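Write out this protein's structure.
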Amino acid sequence: MTSGRLPIQTPRLRLRQWRDADVEAFARINADPEVMRYFPAPIGAEASARSIDTWRRQIAERGWSNWAVERADSGEFIGFVGLTVSFTSLVNRRSRAVMSASAC
């Protein structure tokens, strides 16, 4: 499945599929401790590239994931935004369902 809805554009931003040219800029962003202060740790170039590969594949398969974000006025890549399934959330729901069933 591919999304025919990309790019999504606002007056200031454009959400789009990832490009090969984004890898270097994304790695620079992920290596910056100030940018990554709310993440567990800065991320290296290889992990950044793997993330982009994963998100490209997810967008192609299901039509959504994390998209590249660029400035609408200049086309400059500035980061990412998107949707993610939380594995912890899925595990917690299953655990509650199993515990409820075993309590009966």
